[in-house]
Amino acid sequence: MLFAPDTEEALQFIVDLANTTATASRSGADELTTLAELDALLLTYSGRKDRDQAELRAVRETRDLLRAVWTLDRDDAVEAVNRMLREARAVPYLTRHDGSDWHIHATEPDAPLAERIRVEAAMALIDVIRMDETGRLRVCDADDCDGLFIDLSRNGSRRFCSVRCGNRVNMTAFRARKAEKQ
Ligand SMILES: [Zn+2]
Ligand SMILES: [Zn+2]
């Protein structure tokens, strides 16, 4: 295992959030435009949920922000992480809720949802930066996709956000080779 389970879970959440954009989603449409879609994405998220347009807007802005942070080099990522923590006045503490074991939170449960998403992302990114593994935060290699993914493979050679993208690119390359031969 590369990262702690809760870090991996938080990184995966960033990916799930980031990949709701039209350029990364499976449907090809923006999958975070309604309160119902927000609700579905945050099903497992505890704490305050206002379920209004302002919250949706704030989470969409956070989606853009985390997308940008994902591709920063290590030193710039440090700046971005520190800024997110500072702006939220994050104070880490151990907590246990909903049947979970002790784990770290750095915001109060009644802080705005988008702020809690940013701080949780920042806490996970701290681990990635300290372990010098920011190179594992990747963007899909397919020309028509900017899906994010975490490369957890042993040799760090994963190229695509999904099997779907890998197959599509391989099929295109295969057809091109075949056409060349004819
Ligand atoms: Zn928790
Ligand atoms: Zn992709």
Descriptive account of the structure:
It comes from Actinoplanes xinjiangensis. This protein has about 180 residues and is mainly alpha-helical. The protein is about 50% helix and about 5% strand. The strands form 2 sheets. It has a two-stranded antiparallel ribbon. Helix 1 packs across helix 5. The mean pLDDT is about 95.
Strand order of the largest sheet: 1-2
| Percentage of residues in strands | 5-15%
Secondary structure tally, helices: 6
Fraction of residues in helix: 40-55%
The succession of helices and strands, N to C, reads: HHHHEEHEEH
CATH superfamily: Jann2411-like domain
Contiguous runs where pLDDT drops below 50 for at least 5 residues: none
The tally of beta strands, per DSSP, is 4
By CATH reckoning, the class would read Mainly Alpha
CATH topology: Jann2411-like fold
Identify the bound ligands: zinc ion
Please state the structural category.
mainly alpha
Based on the coordinates given, report the CATH architecture.
Orthogonal Bundle
InterPro entries: ABATE (IPR010852), ABATE_dom_sf (IPR023286), Znf_CGNR (IPR021005)
Organism: Actinoplanes xinjiangensis
Protein name: Putative stress-induced transcription regulator
Domain Zinc finger CGNR: 136-178
Concise account of the structure shown:
This protein is mainly alpha-helical. 49% of the residues lie in helices and 7% in strands. The protein is built from six helices and four strands.
